[in-house]
Amino acid sequence: MKEKTFELTARSIALFLFCLLSKNHYAQTVFFDDFGVSPAPSAGNDYGRKKSDYVPIGNFAFGTSKANTTNFEASNIDNSYYAVIAPEFIYSGVIPGYYFWTLPDPSTTPFEGANRYAEDHISGDIHGAVLAINAQTPNTAFYERNFSFIQDSYYEVSFWMYVVNPTTQVKLAIKDPVSGVELGGISTGSIGSQSTNWQEFKLHFKTPSLSCQNTVAKLSLQNIFQGGAGNDYYIDDISVTKLSAQPGITDFTFTCPVNEVIVDTDGDGITNDMDLDSDNDGILDLDECADIVVDTDFSSTNGNTVTFSAPAADLGFVFDVYTLDNSFNLTINGVDLAVNEIEFQPDQTDNVRFKDGSRYGNGGVPQIYQMTGNATNPLVRIIIHKNGSVEMYGSKSSNGNSYPLELYQGNHFNTVNWSHTGSNTVVLKQHVVNTTYITGNGKGVKHGFCDPDGDGISNELDLDSDNDGCLDTMEGNENVATSMLVNAAMGLSVGAGSSAANQNLCATASCVNAGGVPNQVNAGGLADTSGTQGQGIGDSQNALISACYCYKPVVTTPAGSVLNTPQGITSLGRAGSQADNWPTVRKGAWTALESKTKGFVLNRLTTAQRDLIPAANLVEGMMIYNTTLDCIQVNTTGTPAGWACFNTQTCPTN
Q: What CA–CA distance (Å, rounded) separates 264 from 269?
């Protein structure tokens, strides 16, 4: 394919491209790099200079300041050097000599004012840093970064550029993340004059229409012009966004990467392709974000087999049973799921039971054929995970809750060889003993892109999936306490706009099980309430509910059971009723307030009225509603200075 180029030096063309390419599309940010800010320059901080993880070391060397080198080229950010630095601070760190980044040597301090351009592209962005590049060798990348993509989708790359010394030319390319082979790209035309202001470049590309086995590619920004005399520029605010609609111009479509990037985003020693919980929030990837690749209802009698084909189902397979009499087995890619038929009926020598020891047809649990299930509450569920591990759950009543099951009496699961990239074949079979039937549903599932909060991070890697400021791990359905949280690995984020800290349950191999799920939420863990592996999604994807607010009931056992509530106010006719035993039936409180039709109203005061309360009358714990500040205020010290707004709710852990 002939390489497409366009000229950006003519103002008319630049304006045309800007108008054409800036058409509004809803976009999801994949990544954004503004290079941060530079501290006020000093010898102790390398005169404000920093490195970037995304500048290829073999192509460009870091231009450290005169505080750390006697090399003129390094301090001067000369040929094939770079630095992340606020433009106004470059002069401070160079060894005296020829300052091509600046105007002629000023005669008075501060020297920082001597730059040809003294700010990053956002006016007033104090000490905003940029990527200062002194390009020399043609066809060398100055910024490369991997990103995940969705097939048959449109993306926009945007970056800002200020040319200090021309001439220059930049190319955008998409590469294979391992081999570096170019998959598609486009270059700017030659820029032959010094900038008078920052200029934004927006380029659009399309991902392959066909499904790629590997969905990680590398964005590469490259110098393609010979340097040595010029070719010096600033780069700022590099972003990649996924568009919701086709743009006016698509500059190129790239081809599928060949090589797969295996990463361990949560730092627990288990790579994402085998990690059941890729962000260590305790919620399995299968529950946080999955796309169904095969979804088949089935019905079989008298031992007829049913076959499911699940192509590229990289999260695994879910097998739900709605009715059963009274055994089955699965064959996955030619290997039986269990050594023996999974038998539920005691008089047929059952070999499956609940992990709490209860069995079908015993102790109040009906026979398996006496119960039914549905899509929401299946009778039996088997999950074959992406790492080949197997979980099985069963109900103790029709359409009831599920509980963990286990095989016993010599039966056990075989090792499942599950393919992430190729087709998987699952065959259902049954031994025929008298009446024999089974109905249900089989689903093959793969990673999807689930982003309800629109921050560009899919839920399985988003620590705050609904962007409500409360971490997913706290909003799951088990009892995670704040004391269990640790700082998350560098590859994880709560996403733009969330007020939560980058925390989860684990960041090393020492606190997860073999599937990469934090031990605290596994069976017997400190937060476990269900005896399962991991926790459910709870309210982690509902922005209207935050578990960081205190919705938890008071503790009533063991010690809480004796904490009777001594007084109460009710509009429900409860007081004095021995049958209700109210308010002592409400445990662990000093006062109970109950009503279905009447609210509890605090004294409503302005700030000025509040300040008129005599200091002698203030007590710790006094409450008002401050109409000026629009918040409940609590006096925390019993003094005029002790008023604090009670508007950040949480659940205390002790």
A: 7
Say whether 569 sits in a helix, a strand or coil: strand
Residue 441's beta-bridge partner residues?
A: 297, 320
SS3 44: helix
Tokens of 500: 């939560």
Looking at residue 124, what DSSP letter applies? T
- Predicted confidence band at 27 (pLDDT cuts at 50, 70, 90)? low
- Sorting pLDDT into bands at 50, 70 and 90, what band is 60? very high
Q: Which residues of 363-402 are buried (b: 16+ CB within 10 A; e: fewer)?
A: eebebbbebbbeeebbbbbbbbbbbbbbbbbbbbeeeeeb
What is the C-alpha to C-alpha distance for residues 370 and 337, in angstroms, rounded to an integer? 25
C-alpha angle 35-36-39 in degrees, rounded to nearest 5: 125
Question: In a 10 Å sphere around its CB, with 0-12 CB exposed, 13-18 middle and 19+ buried, how is residue 123 labelled?
Answer: exposed
| pLDDT single digits (tens) 191-212 | 888 888 889 999 999 999 887 8
Q: What is the mean pLDDT of residues 229-242?
A: 88
Instruction: Tell me: pLDDT of 54 over 50.
Output: yes
Q: How far, in Å, are 468, 500, 511, 650 from residue 546 at the CA level?
A: 7, 12, 26, 9
**Would the CA dihedral through 587, 592, 596, 600 be positive or negative?**
negative
Measured between alpha carbons, how far is 502 from 519 in angstroms, rounded to an integer?
19
Bridge partner residues of 625 (DSSP): 604, 632
